[in-house]
Amino acid sequence: MAHAPLETTSSPPAPHPTSSPPVSHPASSPPTPHPAPEPSDGPRRVVVITGAGTGIGRATARAFAAQGAHVVAVGRRPEPLAETAAAAADADGAIVPYPADITADGAPEDLVGHVVDAYGRLDVLVNNAAVVGNGALGSHTKESMAPQLATNLLAPVLLTQEAVPHLERTGGVVVNLSTSVGQRGWPGNSVYAATKTGLELLTRSWAVELAPRGVRVVAVAPGAIDTPIADHQGWSPEHRAALRAWQIEHTPMGRIGRAEEVAWAITALAAPHAAFVTGVVLPVDGGAVVG
Question: Considering the entire predicted model, what is its pTM?
Fold first, then answer.
């Protein structure tokens, strides 16, 4: 049986008594953009590098000095720092040794205060200093882990925290040094790997926190690099040779990297031309992390 059509009117139906009027939500405001810093012939950049006495830190100090920067080279031992500085005698910039234990109470405040008093600015902070300590689960004690945690994780937090207000004034950059091996399991070196993996998370978190303030945070994750860091482990020549052989075998490019190759990545990420790069962790490992 056919149904009669419903009668309609030109007026809209009355709203249901319990209906609420639509609510208009204001659109959220976009963050205030920071202009990209432009390369200029203005004041020389001031760069602080921890662990600058040898290896990657030394190569990075020399690379920044070659670009004309004033480099404050931080490390525990004065003699290696002097060697780092001497190699920059003919560079456009300069390397000034700053012997200090960055894990000591008040060290971050003293270091940053010294740099700002001496140069009036801070443009780049490179958190490179690290302590390696091997040992499988079951062998660790609070005392044995303390140097790694203090140097590899706590010192970068406290030093970056102290540097940020000054980096904000220059549109500066924080470069953290991680390790590509820490992106996989590392039996026998789990505490060291954990400190470096933690530094990667801090890199990503700080990148988001500090972007509104115009400060970039990036990280470089070296693989097997020819540095003296293993000299402090007390390993026999046979153990070190076996480790190198294993590293080469697990590096698709089939060789050990050079500290200068890591320094190139650090200076490139810290350059003004990389102004839109933040939160990235760049492996420099010959393909080890993907191989």
Answer: 0.84
